[in-house]
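Teaching assistant here, posting this on the class forum so everyone can see the example we discussed in section. The complex has two components, and the goal was to see what a joint structure prediction looks like when all of them are supplied at once.
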Amino acid sequence: MAQGKTNLTRAVLLLALASVFLITLDLGDSNSTSRVRRLFDTVFAPVENVSRVVTRPLSDAWNSFRTYDDVVAENNRLKEQVALQEGAAVAAAASVRLSQELLALNGLPTLAGINSVTAQVIGETPSNFSQTVEINQGSNSGIKVGMPVLNAAGLIGKVTEVFADRALVMLLSDPDYALSVKVVTKSSRTPVTLPPLPTEDAPTVDSVLDSSQTSTTSSTTTTTTTILGFTPSATTIPAEIVSGGGSNITVPIASQLSVRETGILEGRGPGSQPIVRFLDATTRAEAIEVGAPIVSAGGSRSLAPPDIVIGVVSRVVERLGTAGPVLEVELVANLSNLSFLRVLLYQPITETGR
Amino acid sequence: MLGRLLQVVASRWFRLVLVTLLVLSLQTTLFSEIRPFGYSVQLIAIYVAVAGAVHDARVGAIVGLVSGLMYDAVLATPLGISGLVLGAVGAGAALLLQPFRDPTWWLRILAVSVAASLGEVLLPLVKAVVGLGGWLTARVAVVALVTFVGGLVFCTPLIPVTRWTLRERVSIGRR
């Protein structure tokens, strides 16, 4: 009996030491712990799948009981919202395409050039102290650790663990998540409107167009549409080009374009809005407006490509001294109700080899 | 060789791993979906506490360490954190009952619930110690409360499960 107790004590000590050793290894991003996880997953995944199938009726019943009224109300609201936004989305898609073409033309990185994998959320985190979701695509689909994950609204997180046919995605709200972002603020000054050039100084149309070869006709094109909420504007082509006529030209000067403040976005757990800190200390809180959009900053060491929409500033907290302001961020993606996600097959340099 | 293999398969520690796999699968499926007040009931912590309360501190600690390591392999948290915490939960549940020679059923349920909920307080503390801060907020109290109530509900059905799992009187390392 005494021998048995001694053996048990030894086993306890051995396991406790093994735990400490594994924590040290894992915090140092050791490959061996990743291999242990993958090995365990091959054993555990079939058991979990059977359990999911068996317990689905129970979880469905619970969800029906808890959220039926909310779902009906949300469905009605969303139908209305979809109808309103359908037209706007068409116009927005055209603008996005134009913007991407311009970026590509100038050799700037765009999301359009990055392949992606669509995945479905199959489970939430079982722990109360991590903000992750499980998706049904893994290394077999080309997913790797560190890849950014989006939904239709915007960025939602990054891949932290990858198995053969599933992966874990850490959400933006997890306190362990940090990402460099930029806050697009408006310029406080209005653009300068230049007066028309004097006729003698203005370039003549002949220098641009050969009038003999160009026939200009007056026409007005009006597009009609059945799309709700979308009001197409009339496009009018001028009847004739007035040589040296000159008109007021509004020129935005470079210093008066949108200012982009950079900072680090950090999650603060469920129920709390993420914050952006480490903004430039010289930035005055008044320079940042509530509602200013926040997008990923990009860069060679960033976790995500540039210009992925993250959210808008919901509150600006000014701090004393040299510390810059702290911004609270209202995310555009609803992290509590995720279904289909898009994993960008873009692995940051900082995460390669994992 | 075959006899030895059969002996290992028939041992309570092998049974422990299999039963823990089942409990863990329930934790990652049913109990991650059913979230009273938005918090997940930690069935795995209750299971470990029951093992400690039904047996002794050493057995509770071993069940906790093994279950915790398996739980960490599923979660994105560093491997070993839940192992340490659940090891403490298993041993803690047994130590809470140590002053009582023959604890009543309700005392056992109470000890299990207290130990499991203390584990939920300990987890963010340990995470903060290893540099994964940000979880030590007021919500820890609510998480502990939900786990305490979960302990009151699920302790009774888990007692026969852990008794059957750890029934064998063979210690680790004994030939």
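For the discussion questions: The CA atoms of residues 65 and 84 of chain B lie 6 Å apart. The two ends of chain B are 13 Å apart (CA to CA). Think about how each of these relates to the inputs above.
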